[in-house]
Specification:
CATH class: Mainly Beta
CATH architecture: 5 Propeller
Strand content: 35-45%
CATH topology: Tachylectin-2, Chain A
Helix content: 10-25%
Radius of gyration: 21 Å
Number of helices: 5
Number of strands: 23
Distance between the termini: 48 Å
Order of helices and strands: HEEEEEEHEEEEHHEEEHEEEEEEEEEE
Largest sheet: 5 strands, antiparallel
Mean pLDDT: 88
Structural class: mainly beta
């Protein structure tokens, strides 16, 4: 009799636990989960494969850029398909059959600043369309949207090369090499500062194994056509990795760090923002994700990491070579 009672009670507990797990899974369901990470399931969104920059528009909406087009795509948290698209090709002055290679985004108030890679392509060919700093304003409402503002700035690379405090980074020479080549130049991170400035995060070059961060002190002036005011550079030890994404979350910065080239390990770091402080690695199971964008969800304390899945092979073809209707990228929510 006792054995039967214990068996019934064990079955009841098992059903209760299963129900709780199903409720948790439902709460996480941004789209169909494909894997489980350390802090929750990995979610799949329909759209581009190469998610390269992202910001939250409000607690329910976020916008994503990719490095294969000049379109900004809006999504609702909880829905796999996009709910809005804005093509920036004309605003950015991008020639036909080219893209500006948008790689980073940062929000200051209701304004979102964007940065392109400022790099050469994989063959080392210079592409002036990749030299842009630009901005959009968030237009609020039940379905928030973005509106371009100001004028895209095209002279950041010249400003960087001409800055005496950056002489030791050899940016003039770096700018003549392919983006992923050793000693090449590639900007992929952009973050706001508490003072209303921006931080540029470089994927390449590294100097003595450290990644480069450069402050822009006057972003509002820059999109009004004035030259940049660049602050003192900062070198960060990210374990020999460059910066793929950088964002201010509360009072600290979160950095996605990864190799200069395409192969190697990705990691998440937390940093105070002070040049004298070393970043600390955050323990999170990224699995097969290759995060290149992150943003904080307002009011939640969570951050979302978005994976650049362009190189993932699906049915014998890379994701970025599939039809647009078949392309997807993954995301994971982390509670730091």
């Amino acid at each position: 009799m006792l054995a039967r009672v214990l068996s019934i009670e064990a079955d009841r507990v098992t059903r209760a636990l299963a129900g709780g797990l199903m409720a948790v899974a439902s709460a996480w369901a941004l789209a169909a989960p494909t894997a489980v990470g350390a802090t929750g399931p990995v979610m799949t969104y329909r759209g581009p494969c190469d998610a390269s920059a992202a910001v939250a528009l409000d607690a329910r909406h976020f916008v994503v850029a990719n490095d294969e087009s000049d379109a900004l795509l809006t999504y609702r948290l909880g829905e796999a398909g996009r709910v809005g698209t804005m093509d920036l090709g004309t605003f950015l002055g991008t020639p036909p059959n080219e893209e500006s290679d948008i790689e980073g985004a940062a929000t200051i108030g209701s304004r979102v600043y964007w940065i392109t890679s400022h790099s050469r392509n994989s063959r080392g060919v210079p592409l002036p369309s990749r030299h842009r700093v630009f901005a959009t304003d968030i237009v609020g409402g039940a379905e928030p949207r973005l509106s371009p503002v100001g004028t895209p700035y095209r002279d950041l690379l010249q400003d960087l090369i001409a800055t005496p405090s950056l002489a030791g980074w050899n940016l003039a020479e770096a700018s003549t090499r392919a983006a992923e080549a050793e000693g090449g130049l590639n900007i992929e991170g952009l973050a706001a500062t508490p003072e209303g400035g921006l931080l540029l995060g470089f994927r390449n070059p590294l100097r003595e194994g450290r990644a480069l961060v450069v402050p822009i002190e006057n972003p509002a002036d820059v999109i009004a056509g004035k030259r940049t005011k660049l602050g003192a550079p900062i070198a960060l030890d990210l374990g020999g990795r460059g910066i793929r994404s950088l964002d201010l979350v509360g009072s600290a910065y979160y950095i996605v760090a990864a190799p200069v080239a395409s192969t190697g390990t990705f990691a998440l770091f937390r940093w105070s923002g002070r040049g004298t402080d070393a970043p600390t690695q955050v323990s999170v199971n990224l699995g097969s994700l290759r995060p290149e964008a992150l943003f904080a969800v307002p009011g939640s304390g969570n951050i979302v990491l978005l994976s650049d899945d362009g190189g993932i092979v699906v049915d014998g073809r890379e994701c970025k070579k599939l039809r647009h209707s078949q392309q997807t990228f993954r995301a994971i929510t982390v509670s730091p």
